[in-house]
Write a structure and sequence with these properties.
Layout (H helix, E strand, L loop, with lengths): L20 H10 L6 H21 L6 H5 L6 H7 L2 E8 L17 H17 L12 E6 L10 H27 L6 H10 L15 H5 E6 L17 E6 L21 E4 L4 E6 H17 L11 H10 L4 H8 L25 H26 L16 H5 L3
Parallel strand pairs: 1-2, 1-3
Antiparallel strand pairs: 3-4, 4-6, 5-6
Length: 405
């Protein structure tokens, strides 16, 4: 993870600087056409941030039985596990049908925790004009496994999560291996593989690396722990979580020990194959970010070889929201600069984080969070139950919120 640049700051207030999706689009359109080089180099990384927000917000909801059985994993999901430091599993209430998760008191909880968790993690991790977001780099991949049975003791849950995470990593390995071999297949097998892996774009898999830290550890959030006994919601950083050590340490620069946070651990749970520590989300994230720094310094959080200019060009061309296409709209002539797009901005000229990415973070994402909080309070006033019950599905969905991004 890149260190923060002290000269670049975020906008002072997410509320006062909030911009609607319409104003974001207006900012985008205003730049179309010839403009100074420094403006283009400021706009292009922000365009990448805009498309990146959507990919980070996507919640993967795998079926647990499929994970255990090593079913084919779509290449998009496999790549989305790469270049991240930790999987975060948000476990829903036990034995609750998917449709039941959309009732008053419940339908607001799922999108609320998604949005609040995303905003918290992104603002902790992202450093304007410094953090590299090429090839899906981010701190965590958040998943909400379906059909995960919660009627177990904590040490049994830790073992099940460790097994599930190991199976997911195996699926990623298998999918990436099949992608690397795809050009050697005959046309019939090639087309079958493309269908099974849901291939849309052919990316260089050398730059999608499943990190050793991702295999070794996981954060587990049980959704009921997002509530206090009184039914109110704590600050997201105070939410109790489990840090689960899977027992897989291959590729790490050193073993993972809880010594650094021992005074902040509520209790330890020892499973047959795993070890878990009960602590707060804030402590867990800080702990994992420290390990991320450790592995980066040891050379473990990056592809085996540095990307070339051509590799970056391939990334900019084929990634969702092609930067080359966007650059041509702005009147850019010639090749784009080399290296990560986040480093193109002149930080002496742009002292604050601004543009599409900043507007989306301060405007749309903050507004989505505020709207979900309001919906929860309305549900509470109407006497909605905190615990789920079987009821007719309502129309409000998290997917609709994504349409505004």
């Amino acid at each position: 993870m890149d260190s923060p640049n002290s000269t670049v700051t975020r906008s002072p207030s997410p509320v006062t600087t909030a911009a609607s999706s319409n104003s974001t689009e207006a900012s985008h359109t205003a730049l179309l056409g010839p403009c100074p080089r420094h403006e283009m180099l400021h706009h292009l990384p922000n365009h990448r941030e805009h498309t990146y927000f959507r990919s980070v917000l996507r919640q993967y909801c795998p079926d647990v039985s499929n994970l255990i059985n090593i079913a084919p994993l779509a290449i998009r999901e496999a790549e989305d596990c790469c270049n991240k430091s930790v999987p975060i599993y948000v476990l829903l209430w036990a034995n609750v049908p998917e449709a039941t998760l959309a009732v008053p008191g419940i339908y607001v909880i799922r999108p609320l925790i998604n949005i609040v968790l995303h905003n918290y993690l992104y603002r902790k991790w992202f450093r304007p004009y410094r953090s590299e977001i090429e090839w899906g780099s981010f701190f965590a991949k958040v998943m909400q496994p379906r059909d995960f049975e919660m009627g177990f003791e904590p040490h049994e849950i830790a073992d099940r999560v460790a097994a599930m995470s190991a199976s997911l990593c195996t699926q990623v390995d298998v999918t990436q291996r099949r992608m690397r071999e795809i050009d050697s297949l005959d046309e019939t097998e090639r087309q079958r593989t493309i269908r099974e892996l849901e291939v849309v774009n052919f990316h260089n898999q050398d730059f999608f690396v499943l990190q050793a830290l991702f295999r070794a550890v996981a954060i587990v959030i049980c959704i009921e722990d997002y509530f206090t006994a009184a039914g109110t919601l704590p600050e997201i950083a105070q939410t109790p979580v489990f840090i689960v050590l899977t027992g897989i340490e291959d590729g790490l620069s050193a073993p993972i020990l809880f010594d650094a946070i021992a005074d902040k651990v509520e209790v330890y749970h020892f499973g047959e194959t795993s070890k878990a520590a009960r602590t707060s989300l804030g402590t867990a994230v800080d702990f994992l970010m420290g390990l991320e720094v450790r592995e980066t310094l040891a050379g473990g959080l990056k592809p085996s070889e540095a990307p070339s200019a051509e590799d970056y060009r391939d990334c900019f061309l084929r990634h969702e929201g092609s930067l080359l296409t966007e650059a041509s709209k702005l009147g850019w002539v010639g090749e784009l600069p080399t290296g990560a797009s986040s480093r193109w901005v002149d930080v002496e000229r742009y002292l604050e984080w601004s543009g599409l990415g900043a507007e989306l973070d301060a405007g749309c994402m903050q507004r989505l969070e505020d709207l979900q909080w309001r919906a929860l309070r309305n549900a509470e006033r109407e006497g909605a139950e905190i615990k789920p019950r079987r009821r007719k599905r309502v129309t409000l969905s998290y997917a609709k919120a994504l349409k505004y991004i």
